[in-house]
Amino acid sequence: MPTFKQFRLPDAGEGLTEAEILKWYVKPGDMVTVNQTIVEIETAKAAVELPSPFAGAVTELLVPEGATVDVGTPILTVDVNPEGVPGVPHTAQSHPEDLIPPLPDEGAVEPGLIGSPTPGGRTAVLVGYGPRSVAAKRRPRKNGPQPGRVAAAQAEPAPVEADPVATVEAAPAPVEADPVGTVEAAAEPVTAEPAPAPASNGHGVSVLAKPPVRKLARDLGVDLGTVTGSGDGGVITRADVEAAARTSAQPEPTGTPTAPVAPAAPTWDASREQRIPIKGIRKHTAAAMVASAFTAPHVTEWLTVDMTETMRLRDRVAASREFAGVKVSPLVFAARALLLAVRRHPMVNSAWDEPAQEIVVKEYVNLGIAAATPRGLVVPNIKDAGGLSTRELAEAIKGLTDTARAGRTTPAEMSGGTITITNVGVFGVDGGTPILNPGETAILALGAVRESPWVVDGQLTVRQVCQLSLSFDHRIVDGQLGSEFLADIAAVLTDPGLALALD
């Protein structure tokens, strides 16, 4: 007798509420084992591969690739007793009575499944990750379908009758759902064109035409009162106006010359627009930056630094035997200078705890490295970076950035940061006003290192110059502390020999 189990989307870490299905590694009819990788998802923080909690035959993929679903939503059905009908793959459609019955309420789910309460009142998470002591939360739905599993995962958008002039994108038709789980269709927001309104042609005659069509008629000198609309309900379309303009431009039978028709004005419509869904890492980054900008009072200070001696040291270090095979960039020395400055000003490496009304000063430095990736900006951090040597710091920076660009940053690498550095100089930018990573008090931006005129000992010369931009939370760091912290970083970069005295 077949026994069906449903795999519910787990919380991949840190209380996430939803994820996007990136890629399925199995299909209906495949046999799977416990802990076998079955699907790759993208959370608000990273791409994660999920293992199977069951062994058996895959009977149904409940969610298509590209769909975003809530934590706790059934995404896969497995027959854990496939010997019940030898040689015949089971499907949920052929044995609907064997499926788990509809949930009477949100909390009454089968105990022991990933994403559901266990008998001890906890919530099961990924296999091997241990239980969580809190229940997964679902974000509220806005005008969504009633709870239920998607019956047709690859439902096509409903056909839209096209206007001969302009096409307006339509959202996919709602899919039919049953009471087991819910998958939201990845519908994109649509800005509908205004409905045609009656307009007068100046002679007491009302016509139906959209505003762009009425403007086109004015530009072409066409009287809408003389045009018969071919659209639904007699609506005059752009094609009707252009046809009327061509007719009026034809020579009169008497041979009287007519004035040339003015060319049509340039037009824009949805066919020349691209819509990119806001989801995954980009959605999380946008929400975090908005929360940071409107929660912490940002202050930014700038300081231009002569980095000539640091760049000379970089060249010597990169050529040394101890650093063979290691990429040594100016970012490594800027990070080292920041870590030394944190030792002198530990308040900069702290966090504001609003509920407890406390400032939490961190005695360790988890250094965040902002990395631009095809999926958006991510900020993994180097754990306890203050205890690393310069070579270890260089290797850690390269390892984090390479992993981030490959889309393999884990949630653990993204959490727990205490202070961040971002290198905008690689893009040829001199500086900016960086936004704090949520939960942190300071972020340093390193600008491009350029040859510039500089005064040394009263003489004008060419030096390697760079601009530093430091943003900080003014609730914790006042102007004096922020200025002293930035000045200490600049002092080490100007004379790297100071690092021997400060280290």
Compact summary:
Strands 11, 14, 17, 18, 19, 20 and 21 form a 7-stranded mixed β-sheet that branches. This protein has a 4-stranded antiparallel β-sheet with strand order 1-8-6-3, with no helix packed on it. It contains 9 helices and 21 strands. Helix 5 (330-344) crosses helix 6.
Structure in words:
- 20% of the residues lie in helices and 21% in strands.
- By secondary structure, the protein is an alpha+beta fold.
- It contains 9 helices and 21 strands.
- Strand 12 and strand 13 form a beta hairpin.
- The N and C termini lie far apart (70 Å).
- Helix 1 runs parallel beside helix 2 (238-249) and helix 5 (330-344) crosses helix 8.
- It has 3 domains: 1-186, OB fold (Dihydrolipoamide Acetyltransferase, E2P), CATH 2.40.50.100; 197-268, Irregular (Dihydrolipoamide Transferase), CATH 4.10.320; 280-502, Chloramphenicol Acetyltransferase, CATH 3.30.559.10.
